[in-house]
Design a protein that fits this description.
rod-shaped, 95% helix, 164 residues, mainly alpha, 0% strand
Amino acid sequence: MQKTDPALTQSQQMVSVSFSSQMSREDEEMARSALSAFRAKEDEIEKRKMEVRERVKTQLGRVEEETRRLANIREELESMADPMRKEVSWVRKKIDSVNKELKPLGATVQKKEREYKEALDTFNEKNREKVQLLTKLMEMGQLVGESEKLRLKKLEELSMNITE
């Protein structure tokens, strides 16, 4: 029977531990790098979205100005044509004022719906992440159990070798 040198076994274990810690450091670095690249892309997308929103706001402002100007011109034309149109014009003004009040309310509703959707998406994403981590933890628990069995078996073999 051939006996194993305990010093050799310890050095092999130290090399194995050193290699696994080096691998985990490399894995962490790759994960950090991927995460920072993802965040940079997300920031760029957000920046572009804000630029587009600003351009749209500017265009909407111009459109509203032109709408008001055209409404004034229409009112002047209508007042020249028929006196009964004055009442119709008054009703139209009331409708326009109600529409102006509705517009910000509609925007608020859309914003709240978007915030709700984003919060729900984030919630669902975190739940998926939690499930993945729990699955990984269970797998690791299984692997640890198997590793312990192998180590015990190896210790028994070494013990048998020593007693012989």
